[in-house]
Design goal:
12 strands, 44% strand, mainly beta
């Protein structure tokens, strides 16, 4: 009788663990990345930039990723990062990165306004022949994954910038 109980407990634990994994797999996690100096300020005095999946920010104004360290900003899978910045003109270097596929680095410039929310997104050409990053106003629409991880598994590819 004791072995039947332990078998039932193991089965129940496995079922609960599977259900928890399924429930958590659909959750998108947002984290903020403060890319300005000084103390934190209220959201009406800064601008925010939501970064689409598979975009890596290599440089933001004078802040540059350091070799061997994590990228400044990198949204991937269900993890989304939001850049917090002061209003004004900004310049950033961005790159598409997904497993074995990565793009050339593109430089974008834009003017951020206090209290505004933006989105760093991209267009991706057929068979990833090119990519075109852009910064647009963000109104809260769902950000979906445009690139398939399955297409990237071992097809090493450098994607050209489309201008």
């Amino acid at each position: 009788m004791g072995s039947q109980t332990s078998v039932k407990q193991k089965i129940m634990r496995a079922i609960l663990a599977t259900l928890a994994a399924i429930a958590l797999s659909g959750c998108t996690v947002y984290s903020k990345v403060k890319l300005y100096d000084g103390p934190e300020v209220t959201s009406d005095r800064i601008a925010q930039l939501y970064v689409d999946p598979h975009i890596v920010v290599r440089r933001f104004d004078a802040k540059v990723e350091q070799p061997g360290e994590r990228a400044l900003v990198h949204s991937a899978g269900k993890r989304r990062e939001i850049v917090e910045m002061l209003p004004g003109e900004h310049e950033l270097d961005v790159q598409f990165f997904l497993l074995c596929r990565k793009s050339e680095v593109a430089t974008l410039r834009f003017m951020a306004e206090a209290g505004a929310v933006y989105r760093l997104t991209y267009d991706l050409g057929p068979n990833s022949a090119w990519w075109r990053p852009s910064i647009t106003p963000y109104k809260g629409e769902e950000i979906t994954d445009q690139a398939s991880m399955f297409d990237s598994l071992c097809n090493v590819q450098v994607i050209r910038i489309y201008r």
